[in-house]
């Protein structure tokens, strides 16, 4: 599923994420999987993932950036 991480576009349904790949070959790998509920919004602020729940609560889950070096392989950046 493609998610828009602009901080304004809400998710349309419940989604379990463990990593988020960007269009430019990077990936943000979460330290543990995270459920996004319908209406949650995501963004990257200062290199960190920020989740804004539909009720306004802000979360910043732990994780690391990596680069994709080949099909299915991720390397830390």
Quick recap of the structure?
With 77 residues, the chain is an all-beta fold. It has no helices and 7 strands.
Overview of the structural elements:
Helices cover 0% and strands 55% of the residues. With 77 residues, it is mainly beta. A hairpin with a 5-residue loop joins strand 4 and strand 5 (58-59).
Which properties best describe this structure?
4-stranded antiparallel sheet, 77 residues, mainly beta, 7 strands
Number of strands: 7
Give the overall pLDDT as a whole number: 88
Output the helix-strand order: EEEEEEE
Can you list the strand order of the major beta sheet?
1-2-6-7
Q: Give the CA-based shape.
A: globular
How much helicity do the residues have? under 10%
- Return residue spans where pLDDT drops below 50 for at least 5 consecutive residues: none
The secondary-structure class comes to mainly beta
Count of helix runs: 0
Largest sheet: 4 strands, antiparallel
Radius of gyration: 12 Å
End-to-end gap: 24 Å
Q: What fraction of residues sit in β-strands? A: over 45%
Fold topology:
Blueprint: E1 15-21, E2 26-36, E3 41-45, E4 48-52, E5 58-59, E6 63-70, E7 73-76
Antiparallel strand pairs: 1-2, 2-6, 3-4, 4-5, 6-7
């Amino acid at each position: 599923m493609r998610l828009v991480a602009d901080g304004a576009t809400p998710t349309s349904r419940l989604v379990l994420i463990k990593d988020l790949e960007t269009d430019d070959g990077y990936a943000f790998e979460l330290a543990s999987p995270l459920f996004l509920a319908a209406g949650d919004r995501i963004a990257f602020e200062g290199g960190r993932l920020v989740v804004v729940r539909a009720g306004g609560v802000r979360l910043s889950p732990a994780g690391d950036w990596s680069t994709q070096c080949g099909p299915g392989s991720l390397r830390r950046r």
